[in-house]
C-alpha cells in the first residue's frame, strides 16, 4: 500500500505536466485547423454564408482569437466567431500586422506580406512551454517549434 502511494505521489506531477503539454498541442492543432478553414473559405467561398469567395481572416488577442469575414477585423461584426484559449494559454507574440492574418479572395495568399515569414507564439504560462508557429505568404505553416 505504501509503495502504491509513493508511486502515485511521484507520477502525479508528471501526469499534470503531460496533460498541459497536450493542451497546448491540442490548442495549436485546433488553431491551425481554423486558420486553414479561413484560407479555404477565401479560396473557394463558404457554402453557408457566401458561395462566392471573399476575404477571410483570423484576429489574435492575448487570450483568444477571432475568425472573421472581410479585409480587416471589425470588433462589432455579429458574424465574428471568438475562440477562447484555455486560461493558462496566451498568445505571447504575434508578428502579423494588426495582429491579424487575412487571406486573399481566390488565391488564399496573405496580401501585403512584406516579411519572409510571420509567426505567432502560443505560451502555456503555468509550464513555461511555448509553441512558435511560422506561416509564409501563401498561408502555409512552415514551422512549429
Automatic annotation (TrEMBL):
This is General secretion pathway GspH domain-containing protein. It comes from Candidatus Amesbacteria bacterium RIFOXYB1_FULL_44_23. SUPFAM superfamilies: Pili subunits (SSF54523). InterPro entries: Pilin-like (IPR045584).
Amino acid at each position: 500500500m505504501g509503495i502504491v502511494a509513493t508511486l502515485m505521489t511521484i507520477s502525479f506531477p508528471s501526469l499534470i505536466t503531460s496533460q498541459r503539454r497536450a493542451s497546448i498541442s491540442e490548442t495549436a492543432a485546433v488553431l491551425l485547423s481554423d486558420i486553414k478553414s479561413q484560407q479555404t473559405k477565401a479560396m473557394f467561398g463558404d457554402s453557408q454564408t457566401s458561395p462566392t469567395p471573399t476575404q477571410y481572416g483570423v484576429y489574435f488577442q492575448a487570450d483568444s482569437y477571432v475568425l472573421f469575414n472581410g479585409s480587416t477585423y471589425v470588433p462589432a461584426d455579429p458574424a465574428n466567431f471568438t475562440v477562447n484559449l484555455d486560461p493558462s494559454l496566451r498568445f505571447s507574440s504575434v508578428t502579423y500586422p494588426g495582429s491579424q492574418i487575412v487571406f486573399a479572395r481566390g488565391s488564399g495568399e496573405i496580401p501585403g506580406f512584406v516579411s519572409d515569414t510571420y509567426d505567432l507564439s502560443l505560451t502555456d504560462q503555468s509550464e513555461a512551454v511555448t509553441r512558435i508557429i511560422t506561416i509564409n505568404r501563401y498561408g502555409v505553416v512552415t514551422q512549429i517549434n
